[in-house]
Design brief:
2 domains; 11 helices; single chain; binds oxa(dethia)-CoA; five-stranded mixed beta sheet
Amino acid sequence: MNSTKVKLAGICSYAPEKVLTNEDLEEIVDTSDEWIRARTGMKERRISDKDTPSSELAYGAISKLFDQVDIKKKEIDLIIVATVTPDNPFPSTAAILQHKLGLNTIPAFDISAGCTGFIYAISIAKQFIENGNSNNAIVVGVEELTKITNWDDRSTCVLFGDGAGAALLTKAKGGEISEIIDTYISADGKYGDLLIQKAGGSKMPASHKTVDENLHTVYMEGNKIFKSAVKAMGHAAVKILKDNGLTGEDVDWLIPHQANMRIIASTAKRAKIKPNKVITNIEKFGNTSSASIPLAFAEAVEEGQIKRGDVIVLDAFGAGLTWGSVLLRY
Ligand code: UT7
């Protein structure tokens, strides 16, 4: 059995300054602040400007991370970026960041796991460190969903926002309380068409027609996704606790993917975690896909809500379909 313990040494976030409120959306589509708040819990979200790519938001989060952790840039030996809105289809946003950070030749790659991306990336980085292939890994969740939003579709355009979060994973020294205890990831491609960007890949390359028909934007069958999310996120939280001999009572904080306040409430209820132990910032950032968990996590650390030693469950669901959870002691 591998005796190397991995910890989350630090976490930071970054979001564009520009705010898009529910009232702003009332000017764009037939919606209302009341509907959005009641059905999702969202009040506003951040929106990046046209010339700012995802890598710049990620760079902002990583720069803050270096101020927080006791590690030098040149000691980083792995970058994993979770995103569905990379700067380009290729090269990877991780490679772009590696260059921006001046980190020569260290491995860098993106992963695509929808809103579960940050959890997938933590799971991968943990294993790199356990296997002795990395000592200090940066894991990023970054998204500019407003760049692939269909502003004619009121059922999706009110949901999404932009942001980034970055975490440093390192070996935990003997006697340290901080540890990533377990990770769980899963997927079911059968339902992939329910949440999809239809065009721009090899199946439907970009053409005038795909642009005219808005096929480069997020397509989501919200109601079906809602039902799957409730089930999968509940399952992911309950499973990781049960696998480790814990219950919801043992958890200090649940940090769920911020897709919908009703999904979050249902997940907490299924996992028997009290509402006052659930970290949310959906009202300020909307759904930022793979960035939502690190955005909420970093903010709660910054505000002193989360402290070293707290037992935390991260829990997400997204396109793929994918879902998963992380159990950690911060
Ligand atoms: O992040 C990855 C995973 N994503 C998710 O987990 C999102 C999951 N889905 C959801 O959060 C919800 O399904 C939505 C928030 C997207 C929609 O909420 P809903 O309660 O499922 O609404 P609905 O789609 O069943 O629509 C109910 C009504 C419809 O009108 P009728 O047919 O009842 O007259 C919609 O046309 O609400 C209408 N509607 C809106 N009304 C005002 C849909 N969007 C809007 C809107 N403003 N923006």
